[in-house]
Amino acid sequence: MASRVLVYCAFALLAAVASVNCNIEVDALIAWKNKLADPNNVLKSWDPNSADPSNWTHVTVNDQKNVTRVDLGRARLAGPLVPELGNLTFLEYFVVFGNNINGTIPSEIGHLKNLIRLELQQNILTGPIPDSFGNLTALKFLDLSNNNLTGSIPVSLGQLASLQTLNLNNNNLTGTLPIEVLGLVRLAVIRIINVSNNKLDGSVHNSTSGFVVTSIVQDPKA
After folding, report:
1. CA-based angle 12:15:17, to the nearest 5?
2. CA 118, chain centre distance (Å)
3. Into how many domains does the chain fold?
4. Nearest 5°: CA angle at 108, between 87 and 106?
5. What residues does 174 pair with on adjacent strands?
6. 173, β-bridge pairs
7. Rounded mean pLDDT for each run of 10 residues along the chain, 222 residues in total
8. Fewer CB atoms inside 10 Å of the end CB: C or N, the chain?
């Protein structure tokens, strides 16, 4: 009988430990941290043994301890974004501008349906803008400017009925601005678009009180 009690207690203890240490959002941020060079040690407080990121610097959580904000602008971080970031499903603000973030943008970022503001500008990101960004239906501000992104502007961005600012300036994007995106302009949903300094075809000159569309011009280097 005593041995059965000990076995039960051992299982109960293991279950308790698992419940304390298991947090998919913590795991996601630690997976990202492990891929980053952090010369200023700004992520020192990101503890892989903690199930509660409330006291982590540059991280904001809600009352349920879900991560709602990551602020790492100009933190001198280097390295890629990781697919695990798509598990931060309560995230509303992801601000990582002015670093040396490289590689492609994971399509899993499109899982962040509560995202309001996404700032990845002034990095060295390559590859296409994921088509999955069309799932970011709460997004109001998207800035991917000053990277090395290639490919076309996804038609799916025309699904972002909350989007107010779209900045894709200074990349290597090709093709044309999709009519689906222009439709948001005509409905005065998007108030500012900047797609200059790419390799886009055609031009748009559209300036109406209340919103501004930066002209699309043929890149002279194209």
Report:
1. 110
2. 5
3. 1
4. 125
5. 152, 199
6. 151
7. 42 38 88 98 96 96 97 98 98 98 98 98 98 98 98 96 95 94 81 92 50 43 38
8. N
Q: Which amino acid, residue 173?
A: L
Q: Cα dist. 150→103, 104, 147 in Å?
A: 12, 10, 9
pTM for this entry: 0.84
Nearest to 102 by CA among 85, 126, 70, 76: 126
Q: Which domain CATH number covers 29? A: 3.80.10.10
Q: Is 16 a domain residue?
A: yes
Residue at token pair 């959002």: 25
Q: Tokens standing for 26?
A: 């913590």
Cβ neighbours, 10 Å, residue 186? 13
- Residue 161 contacts by C-beta under 8 Å, 6 or more apart in sequence? 137, 184, 189
Residues 6+ apart with CB under 8 A from 46: 29, 30, 33, 53, 56, 59
- Whether residue 221 is contained in a domain is answered as no
User: Hunting for tokens 């695990």 — which residue is that?
Assistant: 84
